[in-house]
C-alpha cells in the first residue's frame, strides 16, 4: 500500500515530536509552520522523567538526560531568602527514574528537527483546516497559501488559540484567563554559583534555574489583570516587582536586555474538550489541553501526546479505532493534569497576609517531614510510562513499562 501521509499544523514542541514519532513508525510527514523560521518563541523548557521516557521511544531520551544541569540541592524560598522546602536532584531521580532536565527550547527543537527528512518541515506556511475528513472515508483537507493538501491524518498542534480546534469543536468555550501573567528570559552565567530555586511571595513567584551550558533560565509570575503591560518595558516591571527579593534575583534581572524579556498572560482549557479527535483530525499539546505552568507539564504532556498517538497510528492499522484509543488514553490524563495545575496556581495567587503565612508554614512543615513528601505532588504525573517498549541505549530495560 502507499505510504500514508500525515500533515502536522504547527511546528512547536508537540507538533515536531509528533512528526518524529509518526516518521519513525512509517508515515510520510509534512509539518506546516506559520512562522518564517523554527526559532522558537520562548526561553526554557523543563523535561520531567515522564517526557524523557516518552522520548526514549524515538531514541532521544538519553540525549536529553545528558543535558541535565540540576545537581545537588534546590528548593522553595521566601522573598527574604528563607528556605521553605529543600529537595535534591538525587531524590527526584530515585523517585521518578530520572532527573528534571531544563534546556533552551531552541536546543530541543534542533534535536527534533534533526530526526526529520529535510523536506518535511515547511516554514512560512500558515494552514487552515477545511475538512476534518472521515475516519472510514474521505481524507482530511488543509489549505495553505500555495493550495490544498489532502491527508490521511491531520494533527492540530497549533497552540492555545488553535484554529484546528475551533473547526473540530466550534461550540467549545475555548481557553480562559488563569488569573496571572508570566515573564521568561535567558541570561549569561552568573558570577557565582547558586542553588536552583523557586521563590514564592504574595501573588507572585520567581524561578532561577541553571542550564547545562552555564546560562540561567529565569521566570516570574504574578497576579495581574488580563492584557496588562508595563508602562515602560518588562525588564523594568520585573525590577519593580522582584528587585527587592533575595539574591540572585536582582542581579539576574539586571543581566537581561529589555527586549529579551517575554511576557505572556496564562490561559488554560479548564473546560475539557469532548474528544481529542474528529474524523481524521486529532489535537496534541496546548491545542488539546492548554494548562497553567504551575507543574511545568505543558510541554511534557505534548511529548506524551505525540508518543501515544504514534503508538495507535500504525500505518496499516484501523485509523478510526486508533484515534478513539488515543482519546481514551489522553483525555482523562490531561484533564486531570490541567486541573491539578490550576490548583497549584491557586496557591501562588494567594495575596492575603494570613493565607500566605499559612501556605508557607504548610510548605515548611511538609519539607521538614522529608523531601519525598514534596515530590509526591508529581506522583501519577512524572512516573508515567509510555505504552510501548523503548529502545534508547541506556534505558531500554530500566524504563520499560510494567503493564
Structure description:
It contains 13 helices and 18 strands. The protein has 403 residues and is of the alpha/beta class. The protein is globular, with a radius of gyration of 21 Å. The two termini are 32 Å apart. The C terminus is likely disordered.
Could you name the key traits of this structure?
403 residues, alpha/beta, 13 helices, globular
The rough form would be described as: globular
What fraction of the residues are assigned to beta strands by DSSP? 15-25%
Uncertain stretches of 5 or more adjacent residues? 392-403
Q: DSSP helix count?
A: 13
Would you count the extended β strands for me? 18
Main sheet: strands, sense, barrel: 7 strands, mixed
Give the spatial strand order of the biggest sheet: 5-4-13-14-15-12-16
Structural class given helices, strands, pairing? alpha/beta
Helix share, percent: 25-40%
First-last Cα distance? 32 Å
Mean pLDDT: 91
In short:
The chain is 33% helix and 23% strand.
Topology:
Layout: E1 5-9, H1 13-24, E2 28-32, E3 44-47, H2 49-56, H3 61-65, E4 73-77, E5 83-88, H4 89-96, E6 101-104, H5 105-113, E7 121-122, E8 128-131, E9 140-144, E10 147-151, E11 153-156, H6 163-168, E12 176-187, E13 197-200, E14 204-210, E15 216-223, H7 234-242, H8 249-254, E16 262-268, E17 277-278, E18 281-283, H9 286-289, H10 298-312, H11 319-348, H12 353-368, H13 371-375
Parallel strand pairs: 1-2, 1-11, 2-7, 4-13, 11-18
Antiparallel strand pairs: 3-6, 4-5, 8-9, 9-10, 12-15, 12-16, 13-14, 14-15, 17-18
Helix pairs in contact: 1-5, 1-10, 2-10, 10-11
